[in-house]
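Hello Y.,

Per our agreement to keep a running log of every chain we model this quarter, I'm adding this entry. I've kept the format consistent with earlier entries: sequence first, then predicted structure.
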Amino acid sequence: MSDFLPQWILGVLSGIPLRQYTLIMSRCWIGIVFAGVVLAQQTPPAQPLPPDEDAGQKSKQTTGAKPSATTELPPDEDAPANQDKYSFNPVKSKRAVSVGAFYFKKGDFKAASARFLEATQWNAGNAEAWLKLGEAEERRENPKAARAAYEHYLKLSPDAKNASEVRKRIEKLKG
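Predicted structure for the entry above:
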């Protein structure tokens, strides 16, 4: 009887029998969750842009006149600022050689030679990069660039195991 009493009191106080109350509440929670999901998927309304403060100045400019240096836009923030500046970095050089070797094995000799050239710019003393650059340029049928890369390789490591083979390649490219 003590177990029945709290359910009976709940039924009397709310005016809804207990089983119907549970059913109503479970449907209520499902409805709230569903409404939350629907509202979360809606995009927020587009807000209008603030008015242009110097619109009056722009209308005064003639269309044929060049804009002054002060009205130019700043550079993009996500664009690399020092894209063409190379300094001594053997880690980046080694990474560029490994990426170039991947492209070389894949058969994309243009991409491979670009990576090997980048490796030589990061570290001009990287003999492996010069050798592989020569091989890639030779495969691209660019004999002048291949010969220059091989000669630079021989300057860096004249006593290498494959020096005689590289010299033969240079002679073959000259003729």
